């Protein structure tokens, strides 16, 4: 013989039937918004890690009069190797540069005859290397040489990502707000429909906290059911997108796969929404009963 | 010292609903632990309104209502439950929860008070046996007759051994045999110190048990002599 459950005390009404489906939809949207934020974050982190230890030296073609090309590259290599924090340098040959351009310009000997810049790949220890000093000394040794640490490009990309993240967090916040409003509406409707039961409970000595516990437990259970449904569908959707993304040949794009930690965070979404439903139902019972008295 | 205690004390209590006329006027009386009263009066006289003041469903518009030596006229909302747990109420319309079994309905006050499972079951089964409903433990009120519902309602009201029992027509839907049995149950409870007020139209019941009568008519109460004294000297049989 157990404590009568919320389901026994308050027969299910239409508003409550509606709640799991609203919760499922909200969890689905929240899950997608959060997964978008997390995957983009993972992508930016990967990109950042990939380029933070590298830089490229570009020696403009107009400075490379025939016969002095290799001399300029060698001087640049000497300057770079002498700098603290430079872990390694590798000059790309004209042929290697031509290979990189082949997808756009086609193959053939004519490419190497084009005025292509000479590129030097530099590996750095970002904690030690002073990029401004390296750039200054490079320009002094090789006029027209330019050091690119990719930061400008990355910053532009991060700005775009930031706006995307703000939008996704906005969607997440709206989802939580709609969940709160829905649970408030459902709870108020439930209190109105079952006002006779509430009155009897009060008359036999129940405190508001007893009734709040019952409504909270009901909202938590319905929220968990809906959250589980929404979470499963959302996980399937995210997994599907990840699978599609993995089939796209985008060598320049780092992986946007979700980390195990991200999946753990996403798995918390149904629990978070259910917890919000529980807390909202309890708070609504307290405020509504106080107003009614 | 015990004589100074009161379970119920009304001082010049008046009640009106909204801006309507006064339903109850200048009601003053006092009941001590172990008092037993019948509350008589024609329909619309104010019996139910008086009972509502007693179980804190309404507040008086004037005067002082005191329960268990505590002024409850302006009691704060969160303090009401603690007072109500010391009061058992038998409603005329039973007010059972249709979705719960007879056993669960009777057990509700104990469950709310957090009494242990084993204790709840033992008390409830014993009491349902006493009111002759031992075969209706699992039946829901929808499947019960009016008399059966009434006995469930009475069992629910007395299960937690209240210090004050209020009953509105508790024998209205049962035959004489069951009515006598219920009255004996009330008497047993009364012997344990519970103050009892029974609102009824049943003059035969009043004559048979001879407890003091509080008569109410058009919102004004006529009291037995003892209730108008500073402290009740006990509402035992034959006092009125």
Largest sheet of chain B: 6 strands, mixed
Task: Provide the low-confidence segments of chain A as ranges.
Answer: none
Structural class of chain B: alpha/beta
Number of helices of chain B: 7
How far apart the termini of chain B lie comes to 24 Å
Give the radius of gyration of chain A: 31 Å
Assign the structural class of chain A, choosing from mainly alpha, mainly beta, alpha/beta, alpha+beta, or little secondary structure.
Answer: alpha+beta
Q: Give the largest chain-chain interface (CB within 8 Å).
A: A-B, 22 and 28 residues
* Ends apart, CA distance between termini of chain A: 32 Å
Please bin the fraction of helical residues of chain B: 25-40%
Overview of this protein structure:
The complex is a heterodimer of chains A (293) and B (240). Chain A is an alpha+beta fold. Chain A is 70% helix and 8% strand. Chain A contains 9 helices and 4 strands; from the N terminus they run ααβαβαβαβαααα. Chain A has helices at 6-9, 14-52, 69-81, 94-105, 131-141, 151-193, 195-203, 208-247, 260-292, and strands spanning 54-59, 86-91, 118-124, 145-148. In chain A, strands 2-3-1-4 form a 4-stranded antiparallel beta sheet. The two termini of chain A are 32 Å apart. The model of chain A has no long low-confidence stretch (mean pLDDT 85). Chain B is α/β, with parallel strands linked by helices. In chain B, 32% of the residues lie in helices and 22% in strands. Chain B is built from 7 helices and 10 strands. Chain B has a 6-stranded mixed beta sheet. In chain B, β9 and β10 (220-222) form a beta hairpin. In chain B, α3 packs across α4 (117-130) and α3 runs parallel beside α5 (146-158). The two termini of chain B are 24 Å apart. Mean pLDDT of chain B is 87; it is low at 230-234. The A-B interface holds A 1-4, 8-9, 11, 196-197, 199-208, 210, 290, 293 and B 55, 57, 77-78, 80-82, 84-85, 89, 95-97, 99-100, 103-104, 107-109, 111-113, 117, 120-121, 156, 160.
């Amino acid at each position: 013989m157990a404590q009568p459950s919320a389901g026994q005390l308050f027969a299910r009404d239409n508003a409550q039937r509606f709640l799991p489906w609203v919760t499922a939809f909200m969890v689905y949207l929240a899950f997608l918004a959060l997964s978008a934020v997390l995957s983009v974050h993972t992508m930016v982190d990967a990109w950042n890690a990939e380029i933070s230890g590298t830089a490229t030296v570009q020696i403009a073609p107009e400075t490379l009069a025939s016969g002095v090309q290799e001399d300029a590259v060698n001087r640049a290599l000497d300057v770079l190797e002498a700098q603290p924090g430079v872990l390694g340098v590798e000059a790309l040959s004209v042929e290697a540069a031509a290979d990189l351009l082949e997808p756009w310009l086609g193959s053939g000997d004519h490419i190497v005859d084009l005025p292509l810049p000479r590129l030097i790949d530099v590996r750095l220890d970002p904690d030690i290397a002073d990029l401004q000093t390296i750039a200054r000394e490079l320009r002094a040794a090789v006029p027209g040489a330019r050091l690119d640490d990719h930061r400008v490009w990355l910053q532009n990309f991060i700005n775009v990502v930031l706006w995307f993240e703000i939008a996704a967090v906005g969607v997440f916040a709206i989802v939580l707000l709609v969940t709160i409003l829905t649970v408030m509406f459902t709870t108020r409707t439930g209190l109105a429909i079952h006002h006779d039961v509430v009155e009897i409970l009060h008359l036999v000595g129940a405190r508001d906290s007893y009734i709040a516990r019952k409504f909270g437990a009901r909202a938590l259970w319905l929220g968990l059911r809906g959250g589980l449904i929404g979470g499963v569908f959302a996980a399937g959707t995210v997994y599907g997108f990840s699978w599609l993304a993995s089939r796209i040949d985008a060598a320049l794009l780092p992986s946007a796969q979700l980390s195990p930690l991200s999946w753990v965070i996403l798995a918390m979404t149904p629990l978070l929404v259910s917890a919000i439903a529980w807390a909202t139902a309890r708070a609504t019972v307290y405020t509504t009963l106080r107003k009614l008295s | 010292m015990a004589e100074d205690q009161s379970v119920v004390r009304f001082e010049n209590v008046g009640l009106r609903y909204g801006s309507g006329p006064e339903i109850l006027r200048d009601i003053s009386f006092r009941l001590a632990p172990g008092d037993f009263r019948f509350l008589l009066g024609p329909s619309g006289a104010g019996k139910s309104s008086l009972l509502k003041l007693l179980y804190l469903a309404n507040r008086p518009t004037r005067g002082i209502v005191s329960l268990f030596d505590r002024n409850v006229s302006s009691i704060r909302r969160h303090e009401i439950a603690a007072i109500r747990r010391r009061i058992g109420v038998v409603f005329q319309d039973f007010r059972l929860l249709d979705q719960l079994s007879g056993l669960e309905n009777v057990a509700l006050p104990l469950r709310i008070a957090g009494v242990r499972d084993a204790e709840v079951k033992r008390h409830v089964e014993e009491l349902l046996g006493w009111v002759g409903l031992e075969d209706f433990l699992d039946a829901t009120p929808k499947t019960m007759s009016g008399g059966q519902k009434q006995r469930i309602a009475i069992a629910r009201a007395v299960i937690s051994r209240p210090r004050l029992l209020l009953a509105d027509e508790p024998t209205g839907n049962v035959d004489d045999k069951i009515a006598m049995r219920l009255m004996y149950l009330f008497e047993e409870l009364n012997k344990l110190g519970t103050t009892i007020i029974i609102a009824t139209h049943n003059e035969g019941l009043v004559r048979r048990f001879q407890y003091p009568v509080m008569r109410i008519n058009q919102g004004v109460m006529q009291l037995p002599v003892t209730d108008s004294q500073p402290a009740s000297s006990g509402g035992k049989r034959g006092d009125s």
